[in-house]
Amino acid sequence: MGGEGKNPELKVVQTPELPKATPTVVPEVALATALKKGTEQVRVDSGANLQKLADEKGRALTVEGKEVTPFDLSKLDVESLIKLEDQYPGILLYVFTDIIGEKEKIDFAKWEFYKKPVPGQKLTVNFRGNDAANSEIGAADMLAPAVRCITVYEQGDNALARTSERRLGLKGKNRSSSTIGFFDKNGYIPIYTNDVLVVGGAVAEPAKNINLDYEKPFLSKNDKEEEVLDEESYAKYEQSKEAEADKAYLEKMLQENPHASTRKGLTEEDIAAMEARNTASGIGANIVKVALMVARNGGMGLRGKHCWDWSDKIYRMAGVTGKYPAQQIFSYTGKYSGKDCKSGGGPGKSFATPEQYSVIQPGDWIYYNNRNTSDTHGNHSALFIEWIDKDRKLARMASGSAGIPWRVHTNPVDFNNMPMTYLGKPNAARAQLPSIAAIEEKYRQDRLPPTLA
User: What CA–CA distance (Å, rounded) separates 126 from 30?
Assistant: First the structure.
């Protein structure tokens, strides 16, 4: 971080009336040790000071260098968090991992782990209920350019590990149209709450994947003669051989795997296109509409105990009724031992036959065998959105978990690799299905976070 240890000591000062150009702020967010009223408005200004608007006159309490905790900052919106990371490189690592406790003071003067990453160290990701951050912020937003490789264990499950082949871009939300982040042959490697991230990768010699000099050719000096990453740094990077290598890697990856993901989440255009293709009527189509709406809104503040619970929520919201949400068409979940359905005898014995794949329709409830360690049979519960390539058994699915908000998967589910072991179709439904607008009004639980000036 630039200006190591040069932030002022924490003190509370009352400031004069703010000008009318004060940026929009959002109420009902408390920074407990700084605010006297839990419903007053909060923002973070461009100098990264925490500021509270006390009344309509604009009188403010500014907490310069306040003893901020990860919990305090975790409530900010994504744009504000990224701006803070620009000013205090490494702060997201402290806010959204277990380096320190969520109620511990963040010491702006000590960023040793960020500046000198420890090869092989495991960090547990925790977006602390900030669904927008959980949906948008990635490992490359948090980690210094020195970290060239990571391994991510989805929800801490060793059976669901991905190790990056290349890190694209210089750092985080790059100031260009470039694709950024950690990638493997299947594309972008996301991180979500409860994932475990291994710095340098879970490899034999992780230290080889830490290069403390990597960013040096791109650093600039600010007006205090401190070396920083700024707009000029990113412009330099875009003209470098590293950027050329990024482009070559991405082109090769997409040539070999055209459906590989290139970002953490789908774009608004992606979801709108899926909605346009969802031309059917009835409960199945309504389930797809709800699944896309909840995904577009980052989970709407809803929580699921596990993947089955999330699918059940979407079914109920869409208008499915009855004790059991889905009518079982077939199930192979008890017809093989262990976690791998492929060891149980093959199609028709331990997983679906080609004919059974042909009856899948949008809105259907599917278990596919990704061999996770959480489920007794290694299955994951998800809802079918559409076929990406029916002949190759590549499906667009949507799901959530305890740590992952409801989302439409950016990578297709390959049923050749992860066979279907259960198919259910919507059970009884209301005669008058609820509209998407009515569903959002009834179930939305999240609140817009405060923003950065």
Answer: 19
Query: Hey, what amino acid is at 153?
Result: Y
pTM: 0.82
Query: Would you state the structure tokens that stand for residue 29, as one six-digit string?
Result: 């967010």
Interatomic CA distance for residues 302 and 298, integer angstroms = 9
- Contact between residue 257 and residue 185 where contact means Cβ atoms under 8 Å apart: yes
Tell me how far apart the terminal alpha carbons of the chain are, to the nearest angstrom: 21
In 3D space, the residue among 181, 143, 359 whose CA is nearest the CA of residue 263 turns out to be: 181
Buried b (16+ CB within 10 A) or exposed e, 283-319: bbbbbbbbbbbbbbbbbbebebebbbebbbbbbebbb
Would you state the pLDDT for residue 47?
Answer: 32
Token readout for 397 is 């699915």
**Count of H helices and E strands in the chain?**
13, 20
367 touches 333 (CB < 8 A) = yes
Nearest C-alpha neighbor of 116 from the set 144, 139, 140: 144
Report the C-alpha gap between 451 and 25 in whole angstroms: 6
Q: How confident is the model at residue 441 (pLDDT cuts 50, 70, 90)?
A: confident
Model confidence pLDDT, tens digit, residues 72-107: 788 888 888 888 888 788 889 989 999 888 887 777
Q: Write down the pLDDT at residue 121.
A: 95
* Biggest CA-to-CA distance, the chain: 75
